Amino acid sequence: MSVHLGDITKLEIDAIVNAANSSLLGGGGVDGAIHRAAGPELVMECRMLNGCKTGNAKITKGYNLPARFIVHTVGPVWNGGDTGEPALLASCYRRSLEVAAEYDIASIAFPAISTGIYRYPPDAAAEIAVKTTAEFLSLKTPLREVIFCCFDTASFERHEAAIARHGNSVKTAD
Ligand code: AR6
Fold first, then answer.
1. In percent, how much of the chain has pLDDT > 70?
2. CA 109 to CA 149: how far, in whole Å?
3. Which of 5, 8, 9, 30 has the most ligand 1 atoms within 8 A of CB, as the residue to mutate?
4. Boundaries of each Macro domain copy (predicted)?
């Protein structure tokens, strides 16, 4: 696990994750940036997917992106934390990694799902992102590299701190 500061659409990696909405037809934030960079063929493939439930993930090609695949996941909208938001956010990371593993993807980058327009408190979200990923990587998996791609330095630092709490205990199985 590592942290990167910058625009996820620029990463040369097997797959990037999109913080989508349940229509999968595009939106603002990182979703808008990914659709703009991938080009109009992306929404055509997304239309065939019949949307995606909160906490689940679906995969498409990357089209004009350097990344070969996009894993689209739908984070929870923050509503105070008592409506299942932590479990749903953890499910976004787990399901994205599971879908990636089904496609033999070795490297993947995540944005900070739900922490923008969906208003999830960013410290709590970073803890869930890193803890869930560390748990996944401790199992047998083709995944070798998970990057948390952060758009600002505060986000970078909170993911770095979360990796320091969890990353050292990760043992990847062959
Ligand atoms: N690269 C990396 N991170 C980015 C980028 C980028 N190019 N652009 C924004 N971020 P958000 P959400 C960061 O709002 O909260 C859309 O309309 C951003 O700073 O993109 O899950 C969807 O269609 C923040 O830290 O996603 C949904 O309706 C993080 O990405 C809704 O927004 C997530 O912010 C999803 O909201």
1. 96
2. 6
3. 30
4. 1-167
Is 31 a catalytic site residue? yes
Q: Which sequence spans correspond to the domains of the chain?
A: 2-167
Q: Using CB atoms within 10 A of its CB, is residue 126 exposed (0-12), middle (13-18) or buried (19+)?
A: buried
Indicate if the pLDDT at residue 168 is higher than 60: no
Is the pLDDT score of 169 beyond 70?
no
Superfamily of domain 2-167: Leucine Aminopeptidase, subunit E, domain 1 (3.40.220.10)
pLDDT digits (tens, 9 = 90+) for 118-127: 999 999 999 9
Count Cα atoms within 13 angstroms, Cβ side, for 145.
15
**Entry pTM:** 0.96
Residue nearest atom 19 of ligand 1, based on CA coordinates: 151
Q: Does the Cβ of 20 fall within 6 Å of ligand 1?
A: yes
